[in-house]
Structure formats: structure tokens, C-alpha cells
Amino acid sequence: MTNGYLTFLDYLELRRRVERRLASGKGFLLHAITFGVGAAAIGNAGWSPYYDPFQNYFIDPTYGFLIGCWSALLLVHGLWSYWHSGARAGKREEAIEREMRERVQADDLYLSDHTKDLFRLHDLLINNIRTRASMIPVLLTFIVINAVVWIPWAILEPDSSFAWKMAPLLVIPLLLALAWNLWRRGRHEAKLRDQMEQLFGNPIDQQFEDDYETEHEARLTESDELVTVDEYMMKRKRT
Q1: H or E segment at 218?
Q2: Taking the domains of the chain in order of start, what are their residue ranges?
Q3: Where does residue 27 fall: left (phi above 0), alpha (psi -120 to 50 degrees), or beta otherwise?
Q4: Using one digit for the tens of pLDDT, what is the confidence trace for 56-99?
Q5: Phi/psi at 208 (5° precision)
Q6: What are the distances in angstroms from CA 73 to CA 31, 65, 77?
Q7: pLDDT digit string (tens) for 87-130?
Q8: CA distance 143 to 78
Q9: pTM, to two decimals
Q10: DSSP-assigned states of every residue in 41-82
């Protein structure tokens, strides 16, 4: 059981190394939140309680043009985040392949050096990282809709109230979608421990594979020394 838990911790470390090669999407999320707050503040500044129904604009078009430009910038940021994130299959595969190739070549892939285990680990990383990065395409979908509302409006009809009234309607669906995504990610993480135990936690069940040797299971110590799990546990007991 101890070895299985160490394997789980080692997997988390490997996943962190892969994700450091990818865009996390946190900056994109922060930008989207800032845009929402900023657009509301700008709209409030442009609106007057003494609004004259006979004037030829709802809110000063200058404010709308500013929001339209900001929407375009946010869209570019979102597309960049998606392109460099684990949500895109090509980038995800590239990051995983590079990390695992470096670990194998350096002989410090401490989860296992068994060939079939490495294939299983590769597939597990693909599914796990894709799920963890799934917030980015969800958020990007709403940012695209937001840009479609603001940009053409700012160019073609900046005097109308269309964008000012339509854009706020995206807020509640966006919050619900993000909440669902967080719940889905949490459920996925809860299942991860069971997957790790099934795939790597019980070497006895893999004895039918002739080339499997339990002594190959190893991990890195705090001094970056590669040792077997048994040696690692002995070192921990002595300290």
C-alpha cells in the first residue's frame, strides 16, 4: 500500500512537470474576470440617470468602442491560451512526449520502467491533463460569443443599446458552465487514485508479464538520487 501511495505522489510530480510546459489558463481566467468587472464599471460610468430618450445614443459610443477593442484583445488572449494549453491535443501530446522522453533517456522515470506501464502512464496523462485543461475551451466559447456581440456592434451600430443589453445575458450561463466544469474536474481527480492503483499499484497482478521486475520501481530522493522504493523507505526510517 505504501508503494502504491508513493507511486501516486510520483505521478502527481510528473504531471506537474508536464503542465509547466503548457499554458495553465489562469491568466486567461483572470483577464476574463477583469473584463467583466471593467465593462460593468465603464458602462456604469457612461450611463446617466438623467438619460434623455430623444438623444441619438444609449451610452456614449466612445465607451462602447473601448469595450469592443478590449473584447478583441481578450479573444486573442483566449486563443493564445488555448493554442498553448493541454486542451489542444497536439500541444498536450508534445508536452507529454518531451517530458517522458527526457525522463526515460535520463533513466529517472521513477514510476516504472516497464514498457506496458509507460504506455498506460502516457494514456493516463493524456486523459488527466485534457480534463484539467477543459476550463479553457469552456471559457473561450463564451469569449468568442462575447466578441461576436461587441466587435461588430462597435463598428456598425455603436449608438444602439444592443451590446450593452445582450452581453450581460452571458454571465449566468458562463458561471453555470464553469461550475459544472469544476465539479467534473473534482470528480475526475477523485477517480485518479483508483486508476493509479489499478494500473501501477499492484505489481503482483502483473507477474504474467515476463519482463516485469519489481525492483525497477524507483523514485527520486530529496537530493535527486534515484533509488528503489525499498531503499527509499529504509532511508526515510533512518532519518
Answers
A1: strand 218-220
A2: 2-47+64-206
A3: alpha
A4: 556 778 888 999 999 999 999 999 999 999 999 999 999 999 98
A5: -70, -15
A6: 10, 13, 6
A7: 999 999 999 999 888 877 777 665 666 677 778 788 888 989 99
A8: 8
A9: 0.74
A10: HHHHHH--TT--TTSS-SS-HHHHHHHHHHHHHHHHHHHHHH
